[in-house]
Write a structure and sequence with these properties.
Length: 100
């Protein structure tokens, strides 16, 4: 861990989201991460740039609401998830298949 990378940055970005849809975003230089619910766009940008050493062009966020599920007669609900779609500058890339 370098001096510029802080512990909160690793806590802010929970995991990369790897699906067919996010793989299509990879063609447009986009990477999708699951982040903390309280994460802001400037802090996400700062964390990605510090951890991976890349230049971020834009950050878009969304909150995916949890689905209501039922197991027999018990109703439950999945948790809400905040996702960040990070667009990288030209010439930069992140390999999400390799651990940090």
């Amino acid at each position: 861990m370098t001096a510029a990378v802080k512990e909160w940055m690793y806590e802010l970005i929970r995991a990369p989201r790897v699906t067919e849809k996010t793989a299509m975003g990879g063609e447009h230089n986009q990477v999708t991460f699951v982040v903390q619910m309280g994460a802001t766009k400037p802090r996400i940008r700062e964390a990605v740039e510090a951890i991976w050493g890349v230049k971020v062009a834009a950050v878009n966020t969304l909150i995916q609401k949890g689905k209501t599920k039922r197991f027999r007669s018990v109703r439950g609900r999945q948790v809400d998830v905040k996702k960040a779609i990070v667009t990288l500058a030209e010439g930069h890339s992140i390999d999400t298949e390799v651990g940090v």
